[in-house]
Amino acid sequence: MSATSCDSPSKNSPAYDGPAYRQAYGRINGMVVVGEGLADRHFRRLADMLPHDREELLRLGAMEARHARDFVGCARNLGVKADAGLAQRLLSPLQQQFQQAEAQGDLVGCLVIQCLIIECFAVAAYRLYLPVADPYAAPITAAVMADEQEHLNYGEQWLRPRFAAVADQVEACARRAVPVALGMLQELGSDLATIGIDPTELVAEFVVLFQESLQAIGTDAGAARQLVNRLAARALA
Ligand SMILES: [Fe+2]
Ligand SMILES: [Fe+2]
After folding, report:
1. Domains along the chain?
2. What is the pTM of this model?
3. What would the pLDDT profile of 14-25 be if each residue is shown by its tens digit?
4. What's the CA-to-centroid distance between 73 and ligand 1, angstroms?
5. In terms of C-beta distances under 8 Å and separation of at least 24 residues, what long-range contacts does 36-41 make, across chains too?
6. How many angstroms is it from 68 CA to the middle of ligand 1?
7. Which residues surround ligand 1, an ion (CB under 5 A)?
8. In angstroms, what is the span from residue 129 Cα to ligand 1's centroid?
């Protein structure tokens, strides 16, 4: 990403002080802040499940907590109140899947949900938000995006050497969780469009990142493409 993409808003920048932008921003910012808080909790749960990596996972969780605080600051800067209620409702099915995986001792499922699916989703969303972000939020978003990439890398590095043993669990988890993750977008489409993010492009960006991630851990390219496209098509139907 170039420095200019942070420093100067694009010529397609939305009117940040308009009522439509502010309402949509409140809902999207709520999703971001609640989602970052959820990621923090997930990393702390993972730290308990993986004592060998405990310090590292607590560090990643602390980064998520910082992201949440930084994005609260972005809403405050625009004088917008985040809609946490909507975010909690939309994020609840994904949170439940993580809790279910944890209750079943499915560490692979927990890692796939947080470190692959949620992180790919975060990177995709922040990548598309960055060019249309207001000048206060843009450098924060750029820094957060780099952190999310690090979280994604953690998951990939854990899963890659164990791929043969975990491949079926990864696929089963993706089949359950990807449609749920993409389903969150169904109620956010017009808000995303209002703040300058094309929801279809967001799905496409997620599909590319998640497919790359599956390949990075060892999934055959054709199988990864087929799985991700099928899940995305089902979520969008
Ligand atoms: Fe984050
Ligand atoms: Fe993250």
Report:
1. 16-236 (1.20.1260.10)
2. 0.94
3. 899 999 999 999
4. 14
5. 36/64, 36/65, 36/67, 36/68, 36/71, 37/64, 37/65, 37/68, 38/91, 38/94, 38/95, 38/118, 39/64, 39/67, 39/114, 39/118, 39/122, 39/151, 40/64, 40/65, 40/68
6. 7
7. 36, 64, 67
8. 14
